Amino acid sequence: MNLKIPMKNALLFICTITLITTLGCSQHAETTTTIKAPLPAQEKFRLIFGGTDIGGMLVNRDAEKIKIDYSFSNNGRGASSKEVLKLSDAGLPIDWQITGKTVFGNEVNEQFSLQNKMASWKSSAESGSAKFDNNAIYIAQNSSPYALFIYAKALLEQPNQSLSALPSGELTITEVEQVKLTDINTMKVNATVYAINGIALDPSYIALDENQHLIAFLSPRAVVIREGFEQQNKILSDLAANLNASRFDKIAKKATHQYQKPVRINNVRIFDPIKLQLTAAQSVLINNDKITAIEPLLDTPKTGEVMIDGNGGTLIPGMYEMHGHMSDNDALLNVMAGVTSVRDMGNEIKILDPLIEKIESNQIIGPRITKSGFIEGKSEFSAATGEMASTEQEAIDLVNMYGEKGGYFQIKIYSSINGDWVPAMAKAAKKHGIRVTGHIPAFSTVDEMIAAGYDEITHINQAMLSWVLDRSEDTRTLYRITGMKRFIDLDLNSEKVQNTLNTMAEKNIAVDPTIVIHEFGLTARNGTTRAGTIDYIDNMPVGVQRNAKVALLNVADQAEDDAYRLAFDKIIATLTMMHKKGIFLVPGTDLGGAFELHRELELFKKVGMTNAEVLRRASYDMANYLGYGEQLGSIEVGKLADFFLVPGDPLADIRAIKTVSMVSKGGVIYFPSEVYPEFGIKPFTAIPKVVELN
Fold it and tell me: Does residue 505 sit within a domain?
């Protein structure tokens, strides 16, 4: 979806030359021609994430080539790349070489070239070729943010500001805003912000100065900005947040159905999470935000009601994503996937609170959000999220801050916290009636954190690494990923493993395993569509399809390939043992939820749950776990109307939850097939028939 704001009639330019030309012999006219300054030989940019400088980008150019060095480091991991790029006279890439590594160490070696009017490309996701007609632009798989500037410049030269994209699709650019920026020398710049569409689910925003030189790439949390303008990063991140809000506000106005009369969902089988079965075909009546009746199905609509035809499908209580980090995008797509509630596992207060406010006022579409207070220790490996402490007292103060602020289900402790601080942090949390969860801090063990007061463990690998790593090995680094190779030699019946599991069972310590992210990390391979996306990937935009073919980790050889796959098998075996012992497993993804949560639930079957038990765990059990059981978790008279409709039978095939035709959240109705085209997603189902009788 393009945001369309009228172009300004005139732009102010710095570094312009005014030429006065005499026309004719007896008459004079003044003509002003604006000449943009050429691009400098060198440009420098900084990457600001959550207000913290975590990396940079250096661009050097000569008459023939553009060379780009880009790198950043955050949360104990980072990415880096080197690019060499040649452009045609029209600004289109004709040769592009990219080498480096991704955030989790996957090797990057991408190539694009043009020879004899044939374009050829090869990346970790794919290889291909196509005839090149000087009217298409290659979209790089692993480029730096500077690629957006390359695309923008080429698009702005086009009469319709669009170009065909290679390997497929179309790019468009739209002016969306203008903003005044000031550098450290108080020089003022009038920047124009553009939205580039066609690469991913959401627009990419960039700001160009008066000479159409790159000044920034902007998003609500991360800004890549020209050196000298670093102090302007909040202006740009706030602007990106406002642009997103405007976009999602427009989608909400179009897709939100709030009827002024009772709504009946007719001819549906209802999933009963207590009996673990489907009812016979019935109808569910909702008035305002609550379920007011469950009655036999009707043959004809009733006067004074809105009837939505369920067509014999299944009505399922709204599901929970228990490991989210919410944004506008995630909020909307979760609801469309039947995920009406999310436990946010760590976010900036300034981001999460306004998001919740916008959702609750129906300004944007989003789930009910349960908050976690994120606390990290200050170190060279710190995550630039939430709040950070450098001493035990600072950590305790942060716990008290969250507790006094109110509305927090738990605190989440992260990897750079000193494990010795946790008992005092947990004690403070319990005084406020909030729970304690998190990673296992570096140089600590799962047993120590359970003894210190943890109520839940975040990520199954965090617990398992305690059994295979030496205390000196730093899990703030990629050890927490690559160290999982050692799982293959782990004896689950050993005393150390059994002692931990038995203690967890006795103390009711829950686990948020995030199975799907481990499946992604340990089993995804370059060039092959990863397992978790197969059922929906053909409906996604090309950029999402390409990303689904990229591994998370670098796999050196067949032996390492086998080790990672066997490590995932050991994770499943561990979770199966936990489930048998009665350790409570909660479904979350750390990948945004929505379609990923569908896969997480599919993987829950591998630990010994039936389809019905999986659905119960995702809805009824989570509502009770979070303390909302009296209002949510099942489709019963008097409860809030949070549920979704699928055409199939998820008790016969759990994958039926992946095709959602209708969602109700608090009696507000949404049809995902109305929303998905806004993201370039091909709808999965038809919109149910709606009849309204006065």
Answer: yes
